[in-house]
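Q: Got a minute? One more chain.
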Amino acid sequence: MKQKEDLFKLIQAMSKSEKRYFTLDAKKSGRRSSNYLELFQAINQLDEYDEQKLQKKFGKNLPSDKSYLYESILRSMRDYRSSKSRAARIKEMILDARYLYERGLYPQSEERFKQAKELAKELDDQLSLLEISREQLNYIWVTKPKSYGVIINQLLEEKDHFIENINEELHYLSLSYKIQMAKNSISPEAQAEEIATQFPSASNTEDFYPDSAHAQRRYLQSLALFNNLLTEDVEKANTYYSKMVAWWDDYPSIKEEEYVRYISDVFNLFNVAYTQKNYAQFEQLLTKLENEKPTNYHDQRLLFKQLTNYKLLYYINLGVEDGHEELIEQVSQGMNAYKLNPVSQLIIAFNLTLLLFILDKHSICLEWCEKISKHYNRKVNNEHFRLATLLINLLCSYEEDEIEKVDSAIRSLQRHTKQSDYKGIFFKETGQLIRKLSYSAAKKHPDLFLLFEQKIIQLRQDGETPPMRMDELALNWIKSKQRKVPLRKILKAQAT
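A: Always. Here it is, folded:
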């Protein structure tokens, strides 16, 4: 633990079940641990880290107490994970086998290594298999059972195979890093040519496939990145990202163990599908993830955050109205159930607010605008989100046709614009034109909407770029008014 807030961040990252496990674990350990449990509970109750407050309560030994508590939590979490993680069990079995070997209990040690080996094969854990192979070679050499020479030769062949698999996996992992660095280099084209030589020849690429599971994934990953970032062949990138997602379904044990990486691969495919405007594939991926049932809290939280963001993106771009009420309920429940960081909460709340505006759900949209201002953006204090939310609030107030709300919304937008670092005039001009629309007869509205449109286009030509692409939203809203078509249909036409 190097930083003062490390312990606070660790405790904040723990799930309720993990905290409960640690609490019970500490209570079993006697009086000394109960003192550290009191420190654990005090830190757990903090919304923001306050060293001085803790110092007053726990005295001059606070630094050493925090360090002890930090190590105690990690030790307890190793025990907690061992019952839920196959990878953790492999490491423990290897330690068990070594202990048994040191005590001269050779048959028990060998049996433990065999159990660890079977589990390592299930996860295609080549590094653990190599480590077990080394220990088994040592065991056979010391005990010299019947036909030990044959057994040693078999183990040596296995060892060489494990090393080959590890080297192959690391080769394609290295390529993935090189590709991502080449993208930002001075001469990406030249580096792309050099990197291309490190793949199987084009004629063999379709037929070639590495032996080990993890090498297969890294191979597909490097090809996906190469086509996405360097050759910019999005169709090929989609093909390889799709194969990566299918790979996880072929190895359910690895998927369960490394769910975070699985989710990362799925959302890489989401990004490519979105770039291609392949909304049919996008919808299929949404359905796939909605049927996922991760077993632990952290994976559930990750899935909720990522799935919600992409589902909102899909609904926003296509103006999807069906199911929006269920989506609102999912967002509300998920925000309460999962401890997302403030930025993630703000992004989800803003995207939901934007969707509600697009779907003409102005009354509910106004409620979410207020939630963002009073809650979700309070900690983050991001002025771009604040200005964008205030603009949506203004447009919703206009749609609700309540002059007092419109005037209040204009004053709030203009006040915060002056207080912000944003120096453009987009928000000021928008406020003035909405006021004119609010106080003008309906027959004058077409001319005012045209003037509004021309103003935004001129600001764009002058180089002004309002935050969060709010000028784009305003232009589409104006189009919906000019054409007397719902905003969601304008956006869907553009997307497809």
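A: The chain has a mean pLDDT of 92.
Q: Perfect, thanks.
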